[in-house]
Design a protein that fits this description.
The protein is of the alpha+beta class. The protein contains two helices and six strands. It has helices at residues 14-20, 25-41, and strands at 4-8, 46-51, 55-61, 71-76, 82-86, 107-111.
Length: 124
């Protein structure tokens, strides 16, 4: 599925696991842990999965549009880096400077393990 996406529900993991299989068990386990975290934050949203040339990515949107994505998870094909990102992250308050990225919109957290992932949301 190149540059396409499909809508998923929390209990539908077959397609996602198929796309993640080449990354190995450690990354799959981390990504699925992040997925559970995101589903708990956005239980009414649609999960959109998209597979493109440089990453397997999936995110949560109130609509069927990727541009409306609230948050997303991406795994780089060559780097195998795991990002927990925000499509409009440049507009978020980030008093602890945990978000990475220099672009006009996208910001992300580089996730290497679940225990170091910041699980609180600042109210600033």
């Amino acid at each position: 599925m190149t540059s396409n996406f499909c809508r998923m529900s929390k209990d539908q993991t077959k397609d996602l696991l198929k796309f993640l299989k080449p990354f190995g068990n450690d990354i799959v386990n981390l990504v699925m842990w992040l997925r559970d975290f995101a589903w708990d934050l956005c239980p009414q949203a649609n999960e959109l999965i998209y597979d493109n040339y440089n990453a397997v990515a999936f995110g949560w949107s109130p609509t069927d549009k990727v541009g409306h994505t609230i948050c997303s998870i991406a795994v780089g094909r060559s780097s195998k880096n795991v990002h927990f990102g925000f499509y409009w992250g440049s507009e978020l308050s980030d008093p602890d400077n945990i978000l990475l990225g220099e672009g006009n919109q996208y910001r992300y957290i580089l996730v290497t393990e679940s225990k170091s992932f910041p699980k609180r949301i600042s109210k600033n």
